[in-house]
Amino acid sequence: MSGPTLRTYAFVDRMQPQCAAHIAATSPGDVPLAGMAELYLEMAPGNEVFRAADIALKAAGVRPALQIIEREFGLLEIHSEQQAEVLASGQAILDELGMTESDRIKPTIASTQFITNVHPYQAQLLNKWRKGSMLLPGQSLFVMEVAPAAYISIAANEAEKAATITVIELRAVGRFGRMFLAGTESEVQTARDAAVAALAGMHGREDKR
C-alpha cells in the first residue's frame, strides 16, 4: 500500500474580508476572521486529514474551520491570528509525514471564463445556488476552475487583495475548485490577473493522475 499523497499545501498570509466571510458562512468548524493566516491541505486518501489535523492542533495554536472527507480526497483548513503558528503547524504535519512543501501537486488552471455585461437571467440562475454575494445584472463575471481544488482559495484571496470585486461563490472541495467573482470589467480583469499570477508562482510536482 502506497503512502499518503499531499495534493494541496496552500498558505494564505492574510485572509481578505469576503473570503473569510465565505468560509465562516459555510464552515462547520471554527469561524475565521479577516486578517488571520490560514493553511489549506488536501490529501489522498481522504482519511489522512484526520492524522494531519491531530498533528497540527497539538503542534501549535491553530483552529480548524474545515475537516472534510469526500469521495476521493480530504481537506483540512486551519487558521490563527499569528502567521507563525500556522506555519509551525504546517511544518509539523510535513515533518511527521516525511514530506516537504515541494511534494505538493502544482496547481493547474483547468479553465477560465470572462463574461461582460451579465444577462439578468444568467445572474438569477447563478444567484440560486451562490453562498456569497449576489451577482447583479450588467456586472462582469470571472469564473476559474483549478486542480487540485483547494488552491482556488488562495487564488480568490489574492484576487480580492488586488481589486474591488465581489465574491459570488467559492468551491474548494472535489476534483476541481471553482470561484465566481464579479464587478466592473476593469476590476474583474485585475482580479483575474492576480489570481492567475498567484497560482503560476506556486511550485510543486506534476499531477500524474
Automatic annotation (TrEMBL):
Residues 5-107, 108-209 form the BMC circularly permuted domain. Transmembrane segments: none annotated. One of its GO terms (cellular component) is bacterial microcompartment. Keywords: Bacterial microcompartment. It is found in: Bacterial microcompartment. It comes from the Bacteria. This is BMC domain-containing protein. It comes from Amycolatopsis alkalitolerans.
